[in-house]
């Protein structure tokens, strides 16, 4: 990493794919960077061209595969204009030291409104009634629906979008149940929702709306056993990610009338292959349209353009999915600490003998910051620098893990002669050494003890 630089970097070259709004492209160009705009790329085609770019901006069409990332010799940042990053191999990006950012706020309202469009279309049979009218029929009795007032909506995942859905559901005079392992009771009360366990939500809800991210924990989260525990009149809406609901189990539940209906905007594979819902009359489907409004696409394009430019220019990390965020002001304030941290890691790399087994970073006293992750990651970067020239604070933790070297950090209440100390202990198969460092006059990095 070297001494971390402040101020504007040299002009970067950025590849923009997937039809990003022109306003977003303009932000990047006005930031003084070179932009190439291309249509969605197949993985092989992306791998062939990505090596000449410092930044990449995509929506959802282009798949950024491990093979493509390994060809990205200069790449520093990937910006996803939208929320989901399942089209980007985040693990490989992290190993390569590439920041992956998204724009979680830009399409909140669009997705929230689409959720209610599907919910209302489902309970009032609007798509089927429209088709009937277009065929010249007048089937009023056939398409009798249900009201939402007084019903219970279960929201799975109460982040920005889930919270917005909960708020609007209350305007419809619905009772809202919420399941989210990260939602505090205090926040639930502020939202006016009842915080419940997953099984409770499944059993009590008249409508269930999914707004959870796709992960190992949420993959196949709702399946046959859960449909059997739902109310027969329950209706399921998914505007989050395909794969959270087992599609074949849902199709079976709809066909057997175990639940009343479903509305989907997302699918396990897009476009769906061998779509199990074709021919069913109790489902509403849209082709991943939740974020497809003029306003949402403009918002996410401008947001991601600013985030990418800010990172390339100042190192500010906003809405990153593979490292903690670090705004420009905080990064500037951390510069002396980061410089000290890197030098301590570098010192240990040259000082110890033998194969490293573990590295521990200990913080003593008041550093003036609460989040020490950037400092720890920078120590690890310095330690790996002599053997890995391209390592940085994004890739260092995963690179260390790949090498089988344990790392951890801890806080200490021990007395110190200084306002604070950072201790770095390295254990190898031959020896153990501890160094401690601090800042004099807030900016002067010093090693203050070795094995003492």
What would you note in describing this structure?
- The protein is an alpha/beta fold and 452 residues long.
- The protein has three domains: 13-106 and 294-325, NAD(P)-binding Rossmann-like Domain (Rossmann fold); 108-285, NAD(P)-binding Rossmann-like Domain (Rossmann fold), CATH 3.40.50; 329-450, 60s Ribosomal Protein L30, Chain: A (2-Layer Sandwich), CATH 3.30.1330.90.
- Helices cover 34% and strands 19% of the residues.
- The chain contains 15 helices and 17 strands.
- The strands form three sheets. It has a seven-stranded parallel β-sheet, sandwiched between helices. Strands 2-1-3-4-5 form a five-stranded parallel β-sheet. Strands 14-13-15-16-17 form a five-stranded mixed β-sheet.
- Helix 5 packs across helix 7 (160-171).
- It is elongated and about 85 Å long.
- The two termini are 28 Å apart.
- The model is unreliable at 1-8 (pLDDT under 50).
